[in-house]
Amino acid sequence: QAMESGGGLVQPGGSLRLSCTGLGFSSGYYAVGWFRQAPGKEREGVSCITSSDGSTDYSDSVKGRFTISKDNAKNTVYLQMNNLKPEDTGVYYCAQDMSSRYSSSSGTYYCLLQSSVYDGWGQGTQVTVSS
Known about the structure:
By secondary structure, the chain is mainly β. The protein has strands spanning 3-5, 8-10, 16-21, 31-37, 44-50, 56-58, 66-71, 76-81, 90-97, 102-103, 108-109, 125-129. The protein contains no helices and 12 strands.
């Protein structure tokens, strides 16, 4: 089961780096996704990264501000969040997709921002962006 850390309270324009550990490298996961849920809202996909070739995807709301990366040696995936906005507030979760997704047309692996394909959810880490 994944475990998130690194959340906290930050002012608008600030930065945080979230970590996702406890990943099942030995069980052969294929992608890790970051999701967030604000009070009263549905969980939404933020970013994901494939374990094989490091292909990434981002939601439009965070593109250009957030960067996902992985350290295979540490079995850890990071989410660097810069220029944070109040609307980024929420509980952030990471999880693993155990299905391999390969595009024969592009010759690359890809990941999805759909929570339904992910498993092994952590307890989440709170991110609050407020002045």
